[in-house]
Amino acid sequence: MLKVGDKLPAGSLQEFIEVETEGCALGPNSFDIGKATANKTIVIFGLPGAFTPTCSAKHVPGYVEKADALKAAGVDEIWCVSVNDAFVMGAWGREQKTAGKVRMMADGSGEFAKATGLTLDLTGRGMGVRSQRYSMLVVDGVVKALNIEAPGKFEVSDAASILEQVRAAGQ
């Protein structure tokens, strides 16, 4: 399992892009994790699924609300990662009003979750293998703080908690 001091695993995540930019076409775009985190301070939070109750009512809204404070504290980007496809993450991002605040990164096949060891088996609930709920502070691809929730809990991976850690780390 991923721990503080580890480099993020190699791989890619996808993001649905609504406005074409240099290097990014409309629709899903794949981003190399190593390249996307190089020379940046990034807060990544993972969660079991788009449009699910706690994720939609508390987890994502907290990061949208605290985005400006996180960026003022030195965070370059905030990523929400879930085992959903880029189209679902894009639609969820529109609903949650994440544009310009939180990047909605799709881990469609759960490869990132598996590589980090942060999986959650929800097969019994009809959701398959998903991501655990967590937050992490990543500096230049290296994990500086990692907060993993106990199953069914939402106590340590919220935006306010990681903001305190970012400020304490002096990022």
TrEMBL record:
SUPFAM superfamilies: Thioredoxin-like. Transmembrane segments: none annotated. One of its GO terms (cellular component) is cytoplasm. InterPro entries: PRX5-like, Redoxin, Thioredoxin-like_sf, Thioredoxin_domain. The keyword Oxidoreductase applies. Keywords: Antioxidant, Oxidoreductase, Peroxidase, Redox-active center. One of its GO terms (molecular function) is thioredoxin peroxidase activity. It holds the Pfam family Redoxin. It is an enzyme of class 1 (oxidoreductase). One of its GO terms (biological process) is cell redox homeostasis. The active site is at 55 (cysteine sulfenic acid (-soh) intermediate). It catalyses: a hydroperoxide + 2 glutathione = an alcohol + glutathione disulfide + H2O. Residues 2-168 form the Thioredoxin domain. Its EC number is 1.11.1.27. Belongs to the peroxiredoxin family. Prx5 subfamily. Thiol-specific peroxidase that catalyzes the reduction of hydrogen peroxide and organic hydroperoxides to water and alcohols, respectively. Plays a role in cell protection against oxidative stress by detoxifying peroxides. This is Glutathione-dependent peroxiredoxin. It comes from Piscinibacter koreensis.
